[in-house]
Predict the structure.
Amino acid sequence: MRRLVTGKAATAEAITVREVERERWSASDLAHAVPAGHAVLSLSGVRGESTPPLLVDLRS
């Protein structure tokens, strides 16, 4: 069916691309949302891979 419509043979591999919008916080929003005695850390490895922000309790 695909060959009739597009002129190309169907393949076993299919790629689906989906864009996901990540929530971005401004520094002001973040500063007002973090509880007292806590900090938000954003870490990344030496190859550039990053982790989600981490909420750290500084009181313990």
About this structure: The chain has two helices and two strands. The chain has a mean pLDDT of 79. The first helix runs from residue 2 to 6. The first strand starts at residue 38 and ends at 41.
